[in-house]
Amino acid sequence: MKKALQSLLSFIICVALVACVLPLRAQAYESTYPLPNLTGNKAIDMVAVAKSQVGYGEDANGGTAYGAWMTEQSMLIGQYYDFTYKDWCSAFFCWVADHAGISRGIVFSTMSASVNVLFGAMVLAGATVHYETNYTPQCGDFVFYSYNGYEMGHCAITDGNGNYIHANVANTVVERTDNSVYHMSLGAYFYPVCYVTPNYGGTGSVSVLYDRDVPTIIDYGVSMLTNAGFTVYVTAVDNMAIARASFEVWSKENGKDDVKTYAGTVSGSNFSCSVNPAEHGGTWGEYLMNVTVYDPMGNNTTLSEYAVYVPPNETTPPTIGNVIVSDVTSDGFTITCVVEDNTAVRRVRVPAWTEVNGTDDLLWHEATINENTASVTIPTTAYNGAVGTYLAQIYAYDGAENMSFYDNISVKVPGKAGAGPAIENVSVQPAAQGFTVTATVSQNCTGGTLQVIENGVNVYQFNAILNGPLLTCSPTLNTAQSDVAYSFVLTAYDAQGNTTEYTGEYSPSAVALLHGDLDGDGQTSDSDAFLAFLAAAGKMQLSDAQLVAADMDGNGLITPMDARLLYRKAAGLDA
C-alpha cells in the first residue's frame, strides 16, 4: 500500500510538472523545422524526417527543441528527467522516429540520453546488427560509433545513398558523405563500429531505397507582393514524394550579407514561405532566391536566383523634363528625356503611333535608362515604313509603380531621299511671328516638312500644308530680335517616301521678294538677271531678301548659273 501511495504521489507530481513545465518548454525554444510529407515507408520516412532538420542548431546555452521534447515525454510517463542540455544525438533520433510514425517499440523504447541504451533497446526490438566490414548500408540504417571501445557513444542514420545525417555535430544537425565523426575533446576521428537495421516491419523496398530520381519543379512564383514583403511558392513532383523545400533569400543591394534561409511550409506538393524585408535590413528593390526541393532520399532540384522586386513605401511620382527629339530620318527617330525620382526610376515606356492611322497602330517601346536619362529609338520598320507625322507620349514609373506622364510629342518623319516631287517658285515672305515659305510642287507630292535652324544652333521641325500645287509652311518663331538669322530646308515627299529638298535663308530685317525678282517689281526680267550677274562677279552687294530671290538653284550661293537661269526665265525658256 505504501508503494502504491508513493507511486500515486509521484504521478501527481509529474502531472503537476507537466502542467507547469510544458508551457515553459514551448516558449523556451524555437519550433523545429517543418516536417516532410510521410510516404508510409518507415525507413524512408525516418530518413526524410531526419533530413528535414538539417541546419537546426542548439541555442547559446546548449539547449534544443529535441531535448526539451524528450523532457516532456519523460514527464508523461512519470519519470521526469531534464534532457534539454544533454548531448542530444540519441534524443534527436527518438524525436525523429516518433515524428516519422515509428512505433516506440522499434526505435524509441526508453527515455534516455544514452546512445548505449538506445542501441540496446533497438536490438531488443528485433533490429539486425551488421559488424561486417564489407556491409553496404541500407536506407534507414543506424550507424553507431564507440569512443572508448566498449560502449556506444554516438549515432547517425544513412539514406543508403552514401549520405549520413548526424545530430550534435558542431552543435548542429548535419548531413555528410563521410561516415567518420570527429571527437573534439579526444582530438581524433572515429569510424562506425556497426550498422543497425531497425525492425521497421519489412516496409522497405530495395528499388525505392536506392532511388536517385530528382524532383521536378513544375510551377513557381510570387504572391501578395507589397512593400511589406511577399510570399514565394513552388510546386514540385517526384516519383516518390516531395519531402521538404528550402528558400535561400537575399537582397541584391546587400549581396549575400543579408542572406536568410527559410524552411517552406508544406501543403501537398506545394511549398511556400513569406519574406519580410525587415529581416533583411528593411531593404527594398530586387531580391534573389535559391529554392531547393528535396525528395525523402535527399535528391534535390534547385531553382537558382529567381528574382522579385519589392517596391519602396512612398507615393511621389517621377518627374519628366528636357524632352528632345533627335536623329529624325526615314528610318525613325530618337526621344530622350531626363527622369528623376526621390527613390529611383525603374522603367520608362513610350507609346508611339502614326497620325494618319490614329491609335490603330499604337506600339509600346521600352526606353533604356542611364543614370537619370531615358532614351528610346522608334523605328519606322515597326510601322511598315510609314512616313509623315508620328505622335508619342512618355510614361515614367518608380519602384512603387508611381507614374508620371508627358504628352504632345509630334515628329515629322521624312521619306527616303530620291526622285521625289519637284520644288519650284519658292517664295519667302515675312509673317507676324516668323515667315512663310511657299512653293509649287509636282502632282505626285503628298506632303512636306520645313526644318528651321535659328542662328545655326536651334533646330525646329514644322509640318507643311499641301493645297493643290502649293506647299506652304508658316513657322511660329522669335522675330523680335533683328540679329536673328534663319536657314531652312523645305522637304516635299511622295506616297513612296521619296523626298526632294530646297535650302534657303531668311532674316527678319530683310524684305521678302518673289523668287527671281531682285529689283522688287513683281516679275522676273533681264534686269533681275543682270543684278544676279553683278552679284556673282562680286561687283554688287545684295540684301538678304535679294540673296534669297537670286538663289535660283537653291544651293545657298549666288553664281553665274543663277544669272543664267534668271535670263532663261525672263526669256520664257524656263517656267
Describe this entry's structure for a reader.
The chain is of the alpha+beta class and 575 residues long. 18% of the residues lie in helices and 39% in strands. It has an eight-stranded mixed β-sheet, covered by helices on one side. It has a six-stranded antiparallel β-sheet with strand order 1-8-2-3-4-5. A hairpin with an 8-residue loop joins strand 19 (345-354) and strand 20 (363-366). The radius of gyration is 44 Å and the shape is rod-shaped. The N and C termini lie far apart (140 Å).
List keywords for this structure.
575 residues; alpha+beta; 8-stranded mixed sheet; 6-stranded antiparallel sheet; 9 helices; 32 strands; disordered N terminus
Alpha carbon gap, first and last residue: 140 Å
The total count of strands amounts to: 32
* Largest β sheet strand count, sense and barrel closure: 8 strands, mixed
Instruction: Note poorly predicted spans.
Output: 1-28, 202-210
Oligomer: single chain
**Integer average pLDDT:** 82
Estimated radius of gyration: 44 Å
The portion of residues assigned to helices is 10-25%
Main-sheet strand order equals 25-32-31-28-29-30-27-26
SSE layout and pairing:
Layout: H1 2-28, H2 42-52, H3 65-76, H4 89-99, H5 115-124, E1 128-130, E2 142-145, E3 154-158, E4 164-169, E5 172-176, E6 181-183, E7 188-190, E8 194-197, H6 206-209, E9 216-226, E10 229-237, E11 244-251, E12 260-263, E13 265-267, E14 270-275, E15 285-294, E16 300-310, E17 319-329, E18 332-340, E19 345-354, E20 363-366, E21 368-370, E22 373-379, E23 388-398, E24 403-413, E25 416-417, E26 423-431, E27 434-441, E28 445-454, E29 458-467, E30 470-473, E31 486-494, E32 498-506, H7 526-536, H8 544-550, H9 560-570
